[in-house]
Each structure stands twice: as structure tokens, then as C-alpha cells.
């Protein structure tokens, strides 16, 4: 039984900042302080599955090096997303949200952004009880964010783009390592702390090495739970026409301070074996466990405190293991790569459904309802590819084959002790859904240098995706027992891409590209009772929910320029893009019966422009920033929904900007200090398409009131840091969210209780890192 707060969700949580082609990040200045000519453009990336200098890649890519991530204390990608143009995240909780790039997003089950660790796909089915897997930044060589459709090299779940985590490889030549400890305090909350250690150990010099490490992190909570009132905007406590949102005693005695604390543990182990100069064999293991005691939601009402009044604890436990074998072999002018991987993720999600069930059946409000949802994903993948190995060749090419199978299971049960007089049983809903998918693909991409300055690129991916779903649902809220066995889909397609780039000088390039992106369709994963949900289905012009949905697709066009001047001290990049998106997969919510299904409806156009720059004013002083304008509008609204033509796509701010200033200075003969300040801004954005919200007044009259959750307010954030480095020891003091701003980000109204999430309050911390 899926909990839905809104009548229709089109692409909730969407943010788009524009296009990026250099590594902006909160730390890009640090590297340049000691070597002004070495900047983000010198980072080597593998965005096109071959090593290239970032500033030479003729597509929009942002990259942050491992040093930049560490120096700025970034824990996961959400800590850098406001400085990576085009990237956003829907949802505050780790492991429960969706990533969006360039305005391409819905909350349908198939994600639009690919997530990769060392080229291993971590894409899972997104539901209301699971989302994108979030690796913590630990012992990472770099982070790459690829903008626009990446379906040629990365497949159908990368229609908006791809996020690549690249871990550090073992070094067979040198013994090295590092250790770090840190602590922080958060306004209105508990302290946080972290400890980590990394060891690189050559076992056979220049032949075999091991790299291992661990990380433990406690993120202190800042939301209190205490007895209080719960507000339900779907009801009015006063008769019509005066609207006063209903507030009731939450009927809880549960009192816990800072109850949204979270613990993270990460372990890594990898080996590098090089039998001779032509071989590289790397087995690797990555394990992560994340446990949050309670979600970061606070109740809305008369109080402005970050407080909730839930009756039950609401834990989230997300465990994942990634096991891989990467083999590379040089065959003269051809490089062979084989990547074998297994991904195993378990996500347990417990929530207090008392107010949600009480909203569906008001007499049950005094009863306590518990929801347990368990998700399990198992995935095996195999990729082999050949690529040209000659750096001076006019024709550079890559060709490969890909195969994967994935099993996803979602089990959910909602129990309400004492509910027998109302629904005849304690168990209001139980569901068990298993999805099996197999994917086959052949892909290739080639770049031909017409002259030393002019390159043309073409690529294509041929794919087939087979899916099968088994569904069991039961209980009064399901309309009784439903069984579906072997609901199948089979999809084949072609995904092309073309591009051109021209280098006027080695440091000045213009490029253009056109690429098709797609997202697989598939079977719907809920069996919806047409009698129970008749009114909602009629509103959508249906008599029954469809058994399956089709793939959606888009064409994206981009023109950009990457430039460096004055020996690399000045960087100025800009881009324009246009995306035409058809047959959008949407999650259509059936309010009155609590279910949803995925359908194809509507289309959209996204237009964007961005400029960004950085200037090394002196050897120690650097300034930079970016500004983005984005217009993402619905061009063909879905029938039966609240969407209207020309509506802005959800959560896309028209304006986004960031700026930083960094000053480096000597402290004595051996230490180097750095002071940095950063400003980030996002304009107002649409959160819901509904202009009005349905309510029931105290005299049982039904009516409509303005929807107060229609827009998300604009907000800005300021961060600052001071660090000192002597080459082996790094000390860092930082203040995040300096002015303690608390915008309402994910606001839910009318789901039985009104609540919201916000940014982590002002956090002051210190970290010490020792390298050897």
C-alpha cells in the first residue's frame, strides 16, 4: 500500500541548474592555491570510458577530485550538488530519494539518472520505500557528473545523465595511507563525529598491492519528538466557508531529543595484480551500512520548532555490498576490458502510519498503525569492451557488449492493533512484489579527427530489456486478495548520438551534440482493485489501471564552449541546451484508495543557459561562480490531472547561482593556510501542479482552498572554512549554513499529517587528517 500525499505527481523534487563543463564544487580552489596553473581542467576523467583531460571532453561534465571532496568535508553527493550545475536531489534521506539532471525527472519507478561505482551500475527500481543508492565519499579518486543523455555508453537509465563514483586504486609501488578524525556541533542538535583509516600496501613490489580502509560516521540529530498537535490540511476544524486546518492531539507520549541521528559504516578492500606491463587485474569489495533512527521530518503548525509528534520509532537501515572483478589487457593498439560485478542491497523502512490511516478512516485515528517495508535488490552484470589504444590515431573507437539480470523484491505490511471493529482485521494491507529484469546491449562510439582541430563523434546502442513481475496484495485497503503471476514486458530499441567539436587553440573549444535518451517501460507493480479505486480512475478517464507502461524518450541538443586563458589562470565556460521529452512516465496517484500506478502521459520542453568562470587573481587569491537560467515547461498536459500547458516542471528554479572567494597564505615556513567563503542561491520553484486542495469542513461540506504547497520558497546558503596544511597534516575548521536558514524543502500536506524537511542547521566542525 503506497502512501501518497498528492493527487498527482509529475516530477516531484526536480531541480535543474544548467550545464557544467568544469569541476565547480565547493573545493575547486584548493588545488590552485599552491599551483595556480593546475586547475579543474587537469583532472583526468573517464566520462566516455576512456581517459581524457576534463577540459578536453566535448560533452558537459563536472568533476571533483578526491582531494577536493576531502578538503571540503563532503559526505555524499548532496553536499556538492548545489555547486554542480544541473544536478539535484529529491528527498532528504539517504537512500530514499531520486537524482535529477537537467530537469529530466519523474517519481515513476524507473530512474532517469544512472548511478555508477567504478562503472558498475547501481540503478534500482525506485518506489515510495526505496530510492537511489548513495555511496559515501570514502577513498574516492573523483566524482564525475555527466550531463544530458548517456544512453549510448551507459544505457537506458541515464536519459538525464549519469553520476560516476571512481574509487582510488591500489598502488603497487609505494606504501601509503592516511587517518582522520573529526567532530562537529549542529545548532538545535546533537554533536557529530567521524573516524577513518586507509592503508595501501604493496605485497609484491610493482606486481601486487592491497588497498583497504574503513569509515565510521555519526551524524547528530536535530529533530525532537515530543507530545503535541498534528495538523491535517485535508480537514477544517471550522464550518464552511471559514477554513482552519484541523489540529488534533497526536496522542503520543514519546519524547526523544534529536531523534533523527544516523550512523554510517563503510569498508573497502581491493587488490591490484599486474603480472606484466600489459595486464591489470583488480578484484574489489565495497560494503556500506547506513542506519537512521528516525526521518528528518518536522510537523507543520503553529510552532516554528523542528519538532515532530510521531507515536512510533521510524528506523531506516540500508545495507549494500558491491563485489567486482575488473580485468584490463593491452593488445598492442587495442585495449580489452572485462568488468564483472554483483550488487546486493537490503533496505528496511519502518514508519508510523497512524495519521495516514487515520486520514483514510477517521474513526481509526486514535489507533496506532505500524508500516514495515523491506526492499531487496540483487544484480549481476557483465560488460566487455574493446577500444583503440593509440593516442595519436585519427580514429578513436570503442565497442562493447553488456548483460545484466536484476531481482527486486518489495514486501510491505501495515498493522493496526485494535482495528477489527473498523476493518475486520489487524492487518490493513500486505503486499509482496518481485520484479525480474534482464538486459542485453551492444554499443559503440567512434571519434574521427578530420583535422588536428576538428573532431566528429557518432555512437549507437542496441538494447533489449525483458521484465517480469509477480504481485500479491491482500487486506481491506487492497480490496481483498489479488494475485498476478508472470506479468511481462519485452522492449527493443536503438539509441543514437552525434557530436562535433572544434579546438581553435589547445585551451579553447566549441562543441555541439545531439543525443537520444530513453527510459525502459515495464509492468506496473501494484494490482489495483478497479472497484475500490473507481472514482479516481474515472477522474483519469480510465476504468482500470494499465498492466504496463511504455518507455519514454527525449532528444537533447547542446552547444557549448570551454575556455582557458592566461596560462590557465582564467576559466570561462558556457552552454545552451534544449530537450524535447515525449511520453513521460508519470506516477499517477489515486488519492481515495491510497495507491498509484505508472502511465505515459504528457510532454515537456527544457531550455537552459549557463555561464561559469573562475579567476586566479594572484597565486593565493581566487574567485569564481556560475549563473543559470532554466525554463522547463509542460507542452502537453496529461488528461485528468492538475497539470496545465505552460506549467513549469516541478521544483525547477528559473534562476540558480553560486559564488566563492578563496585566499591562500603562508603560515611560517612549512604551513599553508586557506580561507574560503561560498554563497549559493535558488529561486522559487513549483512543487505541485495542484492550484487548490480539497478539504472537508467541520459541517461535512466539501470544498476547495488554495494549495499552500504549490511552490517552494527561494533560499540562499552561505558556507565558510579555514584550513592549514603542511603536506602531511591537514587541519580544517568549517561552518556550513552560516546563517542557519531553514527553508521548507519537501513539504507534505494532506497525507494525514502536515510535515516538511529542511537543510541541516548551522554546523560548526573541525577535522584533522594525517597522511603518510
From TrEMBL:
Membrane topology field: Multi-pass membrane protein
Lineage, uppermost ranks: Bacteria, Pseudomonadati, Pseudomonadota, Alphaproteobacteria, Sphingomonadales
Region forming the signal peptide: 1-29
Pfam family, one: Plug
GO cellular component: cell outer membrane
Family annotation (InterPro entries): Beta-barrel_TonB, Beta-barrel_TonB_sf, Plug_dom, TonB-dep_rcpt-like
Ranges where the TonB-dependent receptor-like beta-barrel domain occurs: 216-738
UniProt record, GO biological process: iron ion transport
SUPFAM superfamilies attached to this UniProt entry: Porins
Alphabetic keyword roster: Cell outer membrane, Ion transport, Iron, Iron transport, Membrane, Receptor, Signal, TonB box, Transmembrane, Transmembrane beta strand, Transport
Protein name: Outer membrane receptor protein involved in Fe transport
Main localization, broad class: membrane
Family membership: Belongs to the TonB-dependent receptor family.
Annotated compartments: Cell outer membrane
Stretches assigned to the TonB-dependent receptor plug domain: 54-162
Amino acid at each position: 500500500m503506497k502512501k501518497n500525499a498528492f493527487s498527482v505527481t509529475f516530477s516531484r523534487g526536480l531541480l535543474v541548474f544548467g550545464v557544467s563543463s568544469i569541476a565547480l564544487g565547493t573545493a575547486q580552489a584548493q588545488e590552485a592555491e599552491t599551483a595556480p596553473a593546475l586547475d579543474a581542467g587537469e583532472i583526468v576523467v573517464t566520462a566516455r570510458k576512456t581517459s581524457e583531460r576534463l577540459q578536453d571532453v566535448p560533452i558537459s561534465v563536472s568533476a571533483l577530485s578526491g582531494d577536493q571532496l576531502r578538503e571540503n568535508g563532503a559526505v555524499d553527493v548532496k553536499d556538492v550538488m548545489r555547486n554542480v550545475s544541473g544536478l539535484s536531489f529529491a528527498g532528504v534521506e539517504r537512500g530514499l530519494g531520486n537524482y535529477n539532471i537537467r530537469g529530466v525527472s519523474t517519481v515513476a519507478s524507473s530512474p532517469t539518472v544512472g548511478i555508477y561505482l567504478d562503472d558498475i551500475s547501481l540503478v534500482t527500481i525506485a518506489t515510495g520505500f526505496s530510492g537511489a543508492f548513495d555511496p559515501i565519499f570514502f577513498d574516492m579518486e573523483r566524482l564525475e557528473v555527466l550531463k544530458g543523455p548517456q544512453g549510448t555508453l551507459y544505457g537506458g537509465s541515464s536519459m538525464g545523465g549519469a553520476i560516476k563514483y571512481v574509487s582510488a586504486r591500489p598502488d603497487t609501488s609505494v606504501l601509503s595511507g592516511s587517518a582522520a578524525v573529526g567532530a562537529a556541533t549542529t545548532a538545535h542538535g546533537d554533536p557529530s563525529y567521524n573516524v577513518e583509516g586507509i592503508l595501501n600496501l604493496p605485497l609484491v613490489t610493482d606486481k601486487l598491492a592491497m588497498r583497504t580502509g574503513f569509515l565510521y560516521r555519526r551524524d547528530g540529530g536535530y529533530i525532537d519528538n515530543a507530545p503535541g498537535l498534528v495538523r491535517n490540511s485535508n480537514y477544517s476544524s471550522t464550518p464552511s466557508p471559514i477554513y482552519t486546518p484541523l489540529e488534533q492531539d497526536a496522542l503520543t507520549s514519546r519524547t526523544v531529543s534529536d531523534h533523527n541521528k544516523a550512523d554510517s559504516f563503510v569498508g573497502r578492500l581491493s587488490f591490484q595484480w599486474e603480472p606484466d606491463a600489459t595486464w591489470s587485474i583488480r578484484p574489489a569489495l565495497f560494503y556500506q551500512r547506513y542506519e537512521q533512527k528516525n526521518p528528518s521530518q518536522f510537523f507543520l503548525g503553529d510552532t516554528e520548532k523542528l519538532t515532530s509528534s510521531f507515536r512510533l520509532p521510524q528506523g531506516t537501515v540500508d545495507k549494500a555490498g558491491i563485489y567486482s572483478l575488473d580485468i584490463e589487457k593491452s593488445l598492442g593498439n587495442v585495449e580489452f576490458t572485462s568488468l564483472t560485478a554483483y550488487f546486493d542491497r537490503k533496505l528496511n523502512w519502518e514508519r508510523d502510519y497512524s495519521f495516514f490511516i487515520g486520514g483514510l478512516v477517521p474513526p481509526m485515528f486514535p489507533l496506532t498503525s505500524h508500516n514495515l517495508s523491506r526492499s531487496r535488490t540483487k544484480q549481476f552484470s557483465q560488460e566487455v569492451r574493446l577500444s583503440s589504444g593509440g593516442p595519436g590515431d585519427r580514429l578513436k573507437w570503442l565497442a562493447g557488449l553488456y548483460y545484466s539480470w536484476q531481482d527486486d523484491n518489495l514486501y510491505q505490511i501495515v498493522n493496526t492493533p485494535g482495528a477489527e471493529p473498523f476493518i475486520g482485521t489487524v492487518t490493513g494491507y500486505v503486499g509482496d512484489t518481485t520484479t525480474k529484469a534482464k538486459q542485453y546491449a551492444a554499443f559503440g562510439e567512434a571519434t574521427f579527427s578530420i583535422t588536428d582541430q576538428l573532431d566528429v563523434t557518432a555512437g549507437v546502442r542496441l538494447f533489449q530489456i525483458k521484465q517480469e513481475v509477480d504481485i500479491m496484495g491482500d487486506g481491506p485497503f487492497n480490496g481483498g486478495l489479488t494475485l498476478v503471476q508472470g506479468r511481462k514486458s519485452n522492449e527493443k530499441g536503438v539509441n543514437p548520438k552525434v557530436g562535433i567539436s572544434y579546438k581553435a587553440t589547445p585551451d579553447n573549444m566549441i562543441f555541439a551534440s545531439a543525443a537520444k535518451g530513453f527510459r525502459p517501460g515495464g509492468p506496473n507493480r501494484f494490482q489495483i482493485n478497479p472497484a475500490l479505486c473507481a472514482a479516481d480512475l474515472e477522474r483519469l478517464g480510465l476504468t482500470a489501471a494499465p498492466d504496463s507502461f511504455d518507455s519514454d524518450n527525449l532528444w537533447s541538443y547542446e552547444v557549448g564552449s570551454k575556455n582557458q586563458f592566461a596560462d590557465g589562470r582564467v576559466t570561462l565556460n558556457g552552454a545552451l541546451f534544449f530537450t524535447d521529452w515525449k511520453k513521460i512516465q508519470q506516477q499517477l496517484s489515486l488519492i481515495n484508495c491510497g495507491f498509484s500506478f505508472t502511465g505515459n502521459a504528457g510532454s515537456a520542453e527544457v531550455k537552459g543557459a549557463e555561464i561559469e568562470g573562475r579567476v586566479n587573481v594572484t597565486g593565493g587569491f581566487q574567485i569564481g561562480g556560475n549563473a543559470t537560467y532554466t525554463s522547463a515547461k509542460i507542452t502537453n498536459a496529461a488528461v485528468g490531472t492538475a497539470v496545465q500547458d505552460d506549467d513549469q516542471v516541478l521544483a525547477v528554479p528559473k534562476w540558480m547561482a553560486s559564488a566563492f572567494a578563496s585566499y591562500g597564505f603562508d603560515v611560517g615556513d612549512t604551513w599553508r593556510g586557506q580561507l574560503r567563503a561560498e554563497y549559493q542561491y535558488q529561486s522559487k520553484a513549483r512543487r505541485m501542479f495542484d492550484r487548490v486542495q480539497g478539504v472537508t469542513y467541520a459541517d461535512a461540506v466539501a470544498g476547495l482552498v488554495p494549495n499552500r504547497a504549490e511552490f517552494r520558497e527561494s533560499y540562499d546558503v552561505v558556507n565558510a572554512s579555514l584550513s592549514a596544511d603542511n603536506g602531511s597534516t591537514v587541519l580544517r575548521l568549517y561552518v556550513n549554513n552560516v546563517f542557519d536558514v531553514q527553508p521548507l524543502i519537501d513539504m507534505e500536506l494532506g497525507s494525514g499529517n502536515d510535515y516538511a524537511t529542511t537543510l541541516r542547521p548551522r554546523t560548526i566542525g573541525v577535522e584533522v587528517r594525517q597522511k603518510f
